[in-house]
What does this fold into?
Amino acid sequence: MTQTPFVSTEIATQPDLWRQVSNGFAQYGGALPKPGQRVAAVGCGTSWFMAMAYAALREDNGQGETDAFAGSEFPAGRAYDVVVVISRSGTTTEVLDLIRATDVPTVAITATPGSPITELADHIILLDFADEQSVVQTRFATTTLALLRASLGEDLQQAAADAETALTLDVDELAKLEQVTYLGTRWTVGLAHEAGLKQREAASAWTEAYPAMDYRHGPIAIAQPGRGVWIFGTPPAGLLDDVTATGATIVHHPDLDPMASLVVAQRVAVAKSLALGLNPDQPRSLSRSVILD
It folds into this structure.
């Protein structure tokens, strides 16, 4: 590509967007789940991974039982107080079908005014200022997660500052890795899955993602020189030594908020895509939304 991809510009806006939703949380927060409520968080693809992160964070913050599901896998009939639905386009078939089928109150977070989800959900949180031109999701997903973290009482100012640092790091060598496996614990497992998806989407690259403790139960077998193991958050005891012994490159940003490390991973995905002569804004076989007959 001769011009800067939309996705690169969108990635760079994330620190300001995180501050915006954190500082303005009061205007969004009323519809979100209250402490003690039993919550399901759902989405598809990237949105599902943000739901996974939110669910773990909410439970770890003592806010109440929270489960995360891909939209197609929501267990009809299970008792919840609120279902939080994440959908950038507001048109994804699985989440619309879920809202139609459930009697549980629904809160939808979307970037698209006037989309079908705005007519179906009980409450709407519109983050249209975080929408994207690129098919590949970056800033809508992380801005949604920033909002959800703010709803749990977190201060996102340091995360935003860390994201600014993430925008300055050199990613050229990381983009040359043949293969990367992303690892996380608790809420960062969702970030690991999202980081892997970004490289698969933008660069058609071989990536995998696992809970960090599960990595040594088989997946470590593919680690070798020229491949990477990217760790979000604090690695379990002994993991770094085990990966070092394989010769694989360890990628770890202990001084950055894990969402800022995801920003680095987004940039690596774009760099790898461009190095391969691909278009990171329009990955093959993908569209903005999956709409089924």
The mean pLDDT is 94. The chain has twelve helices and nine strands. The beta strands are 39-43, 66-70, 82-86, 106-110, 123-126, 179-184, 207-211, 227-231, 249-252. The longest helix spans residues 258-275.
